[in-house]
Sequence to fold (405 residues):
Amino acid sequence: MWAARALAVATALALSACGSADDAATSTPKPNAVNTNGVSAVNVTLAEDAGKDACSLDTKTVPAGPVTFTVSNTSAPGVTEMELLKDQRIVGEKENLAPGLDPVSFTVTLDGGKYQIYCPGAASEYLDFAVTGQAAAAPTGTVPTILSQGTKEYSAYVVDQVNQLNTAVKALDTAVQAGNLADAKTAYAKARPFYERAESSVEGFVLPGFAVDDNAGNLDYLIDMRESTPVDDKVGWKGFHAVERDLWQGGAITPATKALSTELVGNVGHLVTVVAPLQYKPEDLANGAADLIEEVQNTKITGEEEAYSHLDLVDFAGNVEGAQQAYASLRPGLQKIDPALVTTLDQQFQTVLTTLDGYRDAAAPGGYRVWTPALRGTDAPKLTAVIQPLHESLGTVAQKVVSAS
Fold:
């Protein structure tokens, strides 16, 4: 995730309904944040409280301007992530917040308005947070202008995700080259979401000098070819899932595994270069969001994506987050085109994310329950029931934004 990326768990109104008196029970906030050199300070503490994991703030109000959030996990194993939300966007976040690690911080400049602190896994996951002072101006200009601005925001998001993917696969490679199976599995699970969030925007890219139909230069084949995909005998099986096979099915890191990992790092490095100059049209975002949710239906719920590790719910979450980012970048313009559709999509995303939250497991790689055949057999219909309506609604967005552009 990124400090300015758009993602949301609900609209401001929907989220404000999630805040309650329970929030106050988990913290005794100061009336105002400490302000040093014009920068407000907010401390977020994750800790066990009365047998439950809790998320608390030392203040719930700051003035508009730069704000530093410092997050400490003292004793809450079930809460390893904190997000600052506003209007379908994650404005800032920190993840991998295991108990006992040093506090971590991020600084963002905030306009006045209502925000939410989201701590997935806490007894009260949503905490109201207010910024006083000048509110951000509503988007002005024509709908095409507003939509165009959204595409620029989305482009920055894709670049950020691929850069984080680059860092994550290097961490995976470090564990693989060291022969540390447990660390490699953990690093694999941490790396997967970055690709899944940006997947619809990076598929189909071919390295210079290769024909379009040559898998030796097809980055999606080289990075993310699944077990169910026919292997190109000239190229062989490459990428994440070949490494996954060795780690989980083989249960050992071999010289071949190390070679696959090194090659994965190189191909992701190529991807970093490819995505940097990309520009998008509004319909690209709309189609990409729908494609990511279709991916959830076709490869995550079915268990096809992570055939050996069964980390499909980790990928499921990544696809949903990426789809919501694309939607959030279009949302200001779509609000002017079809506000009823915006309301529907906000609610449908919230339903999906609330359902997915029920599968969180801080002890599992990637933070979600392993999607075993047994669990898939009982729960696939439930997940399909919340994903299908969202996919249908997202499928209408491209035509609306094209007509307005």
DSSP finds twelve helices and ten strands in the chain.
